[in-house]
Specification:
This protein is mainly alpha-helical and 433 residues long. The protein contains 19 helices and five strands. Helix 2 packs parallel to helix 4, helix 3 packs across helix 7 and helix 7 packs across helix 8. The protein binds iron/sulfur cluster.
Length: 433
Amino acid sequence: MKIAESLRDRWELIKVGDPRTLEGAKRALVQRFGDVLRAVAGAREGDPARGRTAAYGPFFEIAVTEPSYPVRLAIAQEMGAGGDAAFEALREKFPLPSRHERPDKDDPWVQYEEAFRHEREEEHRWREECLRKHPDYDKARDAYLDFEKTGARTRGRIWRQFVMRAWLVPMMVGSVGEKHRAQARERLQIWLGHLEPEQSGSHRADLPLYLAHRLGVRNFSMLVSHVRVPPAIEAIMRSPGCRVQAFLAAGHVCSVMGLGEYPELARRFKVPVVVTGFEPLDILEGVRRTVRQLESGEHRVDNAYPRAVRDEGNPAARQMLAEVFEITDRAWRGIGTIPGSGWRLAPAWRAYDAEHRFRVTDVTTEEPAACRSGEVLQGLIKPHECAAFGTTCTPRTPLGATMVSSEGACAAYYLYRRLAHRTDRPEEATPVG
Ligand code: SF4
């Protein structure tokens, strides 16, 4: 146990120059450690080592701090092969369905969402505190930066803990003996309930595809309509009469995809591309940097959101995307089909593809004739220049995509317009993403 705790406490300090060498060494260490734990668990009666398997606890905690996907998977496999000893040491991480008034409290997905939301609220509270204390933006940002880095680490740990649990639950069912099999199955059932929305009462199949696959669940499908930004930028810039002079690139997209696809677009179309976050100050900073470039005749990619976005994005997430999705043409409401502007599930994941399984490829959505969202998206008109804006088209009765989402231009104009005669609060659009 002491060795396991010492390893856990020093794990984040283990660093060498070459990430592959480090990853290989860690995996070898993990496998050796797994062997030792199983040997200890199987020690003979009377051997002082027998039963000392609480070390699976620190082993689990190591996985939660480990950034490398293959190393985490190796830890899960070693623990998952640990049988009864691992199950006994880790069962508190996989609580049984609750007998008390809030059965959902023991639901891993609910626990994950609550932990994530709590962390977000803490970060938001601290951000507000910084802004209140330091009216000067630069000072507020400096005060907030360290806290935000810690917050990002904490969110990463919450997610990794959730994924580890998802991996381990089915592995445990296969590795425990008769003594614990029923309990292990019961825990698995809680997870599977999310893939049977009616049975679980959640009325939504909400486990991500990747986890569903790890759980070996097959009665689960997704209708994928994800889009890619760079082809859309290219289509907009090529459209006749285009008046767009610059782009604020969405920080959340870039935090995964990185900046690699933008320099060529900025150069080719002579437009600044500034990566921004979503807080009011982030947007203002993005606009300020954009205007500066336009005034000085520059057109380059500028990352105004470095606290979340690295040039290379998130390689682990991109690796997962590359594995699960492939590029396809996508029809954009109000614009039409843009080649290569969407993602669909890759052939290996076809079994989960609702389009493939239920043959709904021919279903299309026509924008009402009154809707001019295509022109809004291309910067040809402003939302309030559409005759339906605020009359027949509102966030509660949206006619087009740009009014449906709170991020859409029409919804944003509706929400934040300044009308002297208005006394009521504007309706809220549905948040997405
Ligand atoms: S206001 Fe409504 S109808 Fe007009 S462009 Fe926007 S979404 Fe379409």
